[in-house]
């Protein structure tokens, strides 16, 4: 297995989370219906699924956020940080240069899931 086909994040308020990922993050909606929304991204499927519909999907419920991190590659982390602050988003960390060759910024989505914006930079030695 060498490729991730899709990532689905479970959310309490589908409409609120769609608004966040569409209007704040800047993703376009590709597919939506029955508690599910998929966004248009290039390398995989990124989707949201309404937590209230989980019992019908998986026969139960799932853990509560934060359960992981969703990372997006951006061209300019500093510009994105300024844009997010203007939009009222609370920044958790960053922007900061990481030794593995990325400048990162962390913030939370409406459910408390950690979102990262990462910009590729020269790797520190």
Describe this structure in words.
The chain is α/β, with parallel strands linked by helices and 125 residues long. It has two domains: 1-56, Signal recognition particle alu RNA binding heterodimer, srp9/1, CATH 3.30.720.120; 65-125, 2,3-Dihydroxybiphenyl 1,2-Dioxygenase, domain 1, CATH 3.10.180.10. 22% of the residues lie in helices and 40% in strands. It has helices at 14-25, 54-58, 77-86; strands at 6-11, 28-33, 36-40, 45-50, 69-73, 91-98, 102-108, 114-120. The protein has a four-stranded mixed beta sheet, with helices on one face. A four-stranded mixed beta sheet has the order 5-8-7-6, covered by helices on one side. Strand 2 (28-33) and strand 3 form a beta hairpin. It starts with 5 loop residues before the first strand and ends in a 5-residue tail after the last strand. The mean pLDDT is 91.
Order of helices and strands: EHEEEHEHEEE
Strand order of the largest sheet: 1-4-3-2
Termini Cα gap: 31 Å
**Which regions are unreliable across 5 or more consecutive residues at pLDDT < 50?**
none
Radius of gyration: 15 Å
Q: Give the overall pLDDT as a whole number.
A: 91
Number of separate structural domains = 2
Largest sheet, strands/sense/barrel: 4 strands, mixed
- What fold name stands as the CATH topology of the largest domain? 2,3-Dihydroxybiphenyl 1,2-Dioxygenase, domain 1
Helix count from the secondary structure assignment: 3
Task: Based on Cα principal axes, name the global outline.
Answer: globular
């Amino acid at each position: 297995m060498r490729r991730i086909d899709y990532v689905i994040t479970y959310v309490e308020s589908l409409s609120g989370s769609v608004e966040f990922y569409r209007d704040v993050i800047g993703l376009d909606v590709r597919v939506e219906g029955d508690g599910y929304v998929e966004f248009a991204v290039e390398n995989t499927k990124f989707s949201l699924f309404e937590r209230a519909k989980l019992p019908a999907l998986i026969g139960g419920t799932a853990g509560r956020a934060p359960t992981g991190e969703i990372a997006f590659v951006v061209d300019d982390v500093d510009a994105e940080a300024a844009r997010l602050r203007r939009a009222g988003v609370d920044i958790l960390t960053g922007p900061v240069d990481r030794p593995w060759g990325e400048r990162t910024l962390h913030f939370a989505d409406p459910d408390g899931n950690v979102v990262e914006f990462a910009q590729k930079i020269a790797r520190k030695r």
